[in-house]
Amino acid sequence: MSKIYVLDTNVLLQDPYSIFSFEDNEVVIPAVVLEEVDSKKRYMDEVGRNARHVSRLIDGLRASGKLHEKIPLERGGTIRIELNHRSFHELQDIFVEKTNDNRILAVAKNLYLEEQAKENGKPVIIVSKDALVRVKADAIGLTAEDFLNDRVVEIEHIYTGFFELLLPIEVLGRFYEKGELSLSEVANHPFYPNQFLLMKDILGSSASAIGMVDKTSKKVKKLTLNQEHVWGIHSRNVQQTMAIELLLRKDIPLVTLTGKAGTGKTLLALAAGLMHTEDFGEYKKLLVARPIVPVGKDLGFLPGEKQEKLRPWMQPIYDNLEYLFNTKKPGELDAILAGLGSIEVEALTYIRGRSLPKQFIIIDEAQNLTKHEVKTILTRVGEESKIVLMGDPEQIDHPYLDAYNNGLTYVVEKFKDQNISGHVKLLKGERSGLARLAADLL
């Protein structure tokens, strides 16, 4: 039996193509949703871009018929704009205020009652990214669902970049002796390019080894660099050793790092970038950028020139640079950076339209990027450049993103099959005992 899906505004603003995601069913867009989309068209951010895009998509459907009637969609199903079911009579005793959310619920409720009166009435489902709308819908007897089609991965399938397996001690011995093993010797398991294998003795001894999958030769090989420290920063756990391998390898131009606060993502990436740029001279510039998304209430307008305005947003980067350069006096870091001239700390706002050849690029807090924004960034990367995307998918400050549909998770999942990329999830916090406990308990 086909169903009727009533879409909330946030579904369209999250994914303009969501109207084509409901197979052979009927999609209903309440008129109030169009009003809300229209109010967002002038925004100069991702929400505004999606509002303009969905407006064009719906406008393009007019060529197939009248929008207040059922218009067939290419992928099956129909769509219509609901103009009539705006009566608040059924909900006026429950919700006093006629807010936009309540008007959308009223449309769904009236459609539900209309279908219930039919002999073979269709189920009516309201689809919303807003948890409270779904709660309200449930309270008035409506079926409500979250829109999950924009998720790139389910929670149990999130890629970590490494795989732990138990092997006989003699197999580990061959790996130590030869420096490599064929994947068939290791396990009958689908591995990804540049995936790390944490191999342990099946009998429980302390013998263990770290290998890296080479899909071209179908082998697992020892880490090529075997370097546990970079720019004075020593690896404190096995995942940090994996991260250092990825960060220092020139043949892996795309690196993604995820992990909780305090796992060392930013510090390791900056240390590797400084080593590549200042020590080895392999890149002409170290570019560090992060999206301007406030935690809590926005600071509003800030005084001063561009660099002075950016300083509060970029301060976490400067904190790590102060640690790496071991500065102790105020202004000492600024003098060092001015003297080097090869380190640029920038906001992602200014990256559109740029071309970035032969640079070591670090994008911090990438979990706050949308799929479109992360595509914009990656298409800026020029020849002989290396880019590192990092962040914590569990700490998202963007209203329309979660751990499974953000730009960072999107890149991790889309590139895990590619030889030019590598990923590792850092597990253990190393900032301090307090920070580690806070990350686990809170």
From TrEMBL:
Pfam families referenced in this protein's UniProt entry, alphabetically: PhoH, PIN_4
Domain PIN: 3-135
Keyword Nucleotide-binding applies: yes
Annotated keywords: ATP-binding, Nucleotide-binding
InterPro entries: P-loop_NTPase, PhoH, PhoH2-like, PIN-like_dom_sf, PIN_dom
Record bears the keyword Transmembrane: no
Record family assignment: In the N-terminal section; belongs to the PINc/VapC protein family.
Protein name: PhoH family protein
Taxonomic source organism: Bacillus salipaludis
